[in-house]
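pls design
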């Protein structure tokens, strides 16, 4: 992989390769963009087949965090870390303490958090070496379990998408098909049930399905049936890449809005549902409640303040839809444009500030 060529093409700022022989740490910290503020993004631990695969994942995920944080209205840039190793057997205290020291060495340019393969306990170990970590134990001032907050953000974003599709953001009487009823989706179902929506659910975990049936009067269907049910809103809350050639012809919903990451298998599938007139709430905009929540820890966590910020996901989805109509583009592209326009405005503002400063200094030196 031609790393510098790739970084130049997609305008990455920095990559840090970290190793600690004693603990077995092999980590890649990637900082994509800090125009809006320090880079915030989680630490993923995975058994990558090659070092190139780990680097590519770090690069891809870091850029994704730039867009997610920008679209969420956070004063934070995008970054990500990947640690090469098996999270089930390769972890040790020395590894995460050593990693914490590397983060501290970046002096606040990068702030980490929990991600796939890492836990709150791992973040607590990092916290022993640096303050630039979020998602630690509540005893250290963290926000705790992010699932309810993420669910609330998805609920707010779904209402904004419903406003566009149905002319009202009320979900009362709407039939909503929820794919997956894990921690986030269960809480989402609770919000929807309380507003008077009718739920259709599925999950590979039969106990989770029965819980939703019992608690919310949901109708249970088989895994492959969820795409073709008669519903107003389809809420993907499990696997990624579920909007694809096989599923699109089956979907009857007028809105797709859910918590799952990477819902479009390919960008062309976003084009396809746009042409069908389906209102799609881009995943990284609607599921940003978790990152908004942990970002509030940087100011001394205040739940009321964090939840107020999460409520703005409604406005963010509405802005994406407005850009989609303004520029006649699918909403997945409009989400990127929302993020890019915000970053560019800040970049221009800073450039103008520097020009003014130079002008003032030049006049003083005469």
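designed seq:
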């Amino acid at each position: 992989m031609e790393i510098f060529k790739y970084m130049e093409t997609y305008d990455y700022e920095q990559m840090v390769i970290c190793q600690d022989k004693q603990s077995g740490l092999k980590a890649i910290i990637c900082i994509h963009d800090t125009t809006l503020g320090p880079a915030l993004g989680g630490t993923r631990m995975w058994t990558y087949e090659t070092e190139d695969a780990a680097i590519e994942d770090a690069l891809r995920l870091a850029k994704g965090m730039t867009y997610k944080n920008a679209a969420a209205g956070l004063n934070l840039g995008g970054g990500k870390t990947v640690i090469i190793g098996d999270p089930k057997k390769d972890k040790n205290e020395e590894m995460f303490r050593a990693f914490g020291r590397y983060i501290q060495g970046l002096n606040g340019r990068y702030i980490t958090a929990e991600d796939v393969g890492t836990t709150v306990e791992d973040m607590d170990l990092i916290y022993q070496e640096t303050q630039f970590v979020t998602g630690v134990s509540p005893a250290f001032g963290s926000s705790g379990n992010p699932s309810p907050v993420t669910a609330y953000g998805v609920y707010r974003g779904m209402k904004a998408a419903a406003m566009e599709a149905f002319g009202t953001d009320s979900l009362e009487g709407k039939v909503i098909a929820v794919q997956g009823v894990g921690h986030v989706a269960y809480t989402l179902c609770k919000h929807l049930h309380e507003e008077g929506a009718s739920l259709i659910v599925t999950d590979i975990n039969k106990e989770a399905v029965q819980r939703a049936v019992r608690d919310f009067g949901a109708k249970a269907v088989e895994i492959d049936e969820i795409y073709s049910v008669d519903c107003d809103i389809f809420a993907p809350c499990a696997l990624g890449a579920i909007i694809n050639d096989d599923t699109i012809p089956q979907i009857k919903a007028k809105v797709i809005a859910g918590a799952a990451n990477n819902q479009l298998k390919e960008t062309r599938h976003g084009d396809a549902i746009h042409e069908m007139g389906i209102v799609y709430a881009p995943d990284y905009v609607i599921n940003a409640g978790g990152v908004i929540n942990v970002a509030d820890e940087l100011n001394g966590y205040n739940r009321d303040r964090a939840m107020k910020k999460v409520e703005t996901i409604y406005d963010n989805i509405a802005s994406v839809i407005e850009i989609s109509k303004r520029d006649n583009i699918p909403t997945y592209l409009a989400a990127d444009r929302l993020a890019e326009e915000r970053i560019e405005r800040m970049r221009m503002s800073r450039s103008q500030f520097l020009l003014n400063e130079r002008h003032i200094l030049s006049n003083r030196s005469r």
